[in-house]
Request: fold
Amino acid sequence: MHAFCNVQTLLTNGIVLLSEEASDNDESLTAIERREYAIFRELLRMVPGLETRLMTSSEEDVMLIGELIQKGVNGARADDTKGMKSAIIDWITPKGQSLNPHIPRNVKSGRGFNHERTGALLCPAGLDWANTETRMKLVNGQIQVAGDQWPIFLYANYTYDAEDPWNGLLRSGLLVSAYKHIFTSPSSVDQEPKATRSGNARIHGMRAVTKASIAYVATQARFSLTSAQVFSRTDLVTDSERFYSTIVELLDDLEEKDEVDQLLTWWNRQIFPLYSDLERLPTKDSALARIRQKRAEYREMSA
Reply:
């Protein structure tokens, strides 16, 4: 639901609003407060018994609960960061070829704009990595890349269309591999999704791709490609929190709903083979269709 929220603050503020019977759409709340309260309510839905526990606990116990949840969040994120640091080298290496120079799977110093391959993937959409002057400015830091300057690897086939910036956005094969690695299993990356498979997401009750999970995977993949050593939300060099937040803001923008709905449908088909965005009508002349037809006729006769 959100990768960078402060759990303790979320719980403290959420309990107050819950006791006041506020709603996610309460006009007295700011946009940020509404968003945080929606995250809090989703957390209550995800964890059975948490609402009762929070509302009957002392302030000290609430702090302890927050610390435990935050510890779990931080640990899970660290595991994802560690696992992807190694795996992403396989995904960016062309099949049957090798990277030149070689990038060690567990060393980050040679990544980022220091390497031709990772530099090309991290190059902000709209800039030309093939341009020698641009490349040198990225390498030596003359061009500082802010979090809202999204890299080309977010796009399908690593191609950016300035006239249609939605075209291919957040649909790259690299992102799909990263998503499967975290939310299904590392072994599922090179396999077709199977309807019988129960990945990590399904085991934990996740039945569809969320906007926040796409932004989270993009943030983890971006960090793995950089030369930064330690993942930090406040690191001004990688600017990870701003990067994550700007993607979430776009996906939550109601004016972009049509494009976002299409994007989510595309993602669900990549990750969840049983997902259907359409209400399936029973096959014509099937027994089910006939039963429903008879039921409708019976209702008309009884009316």
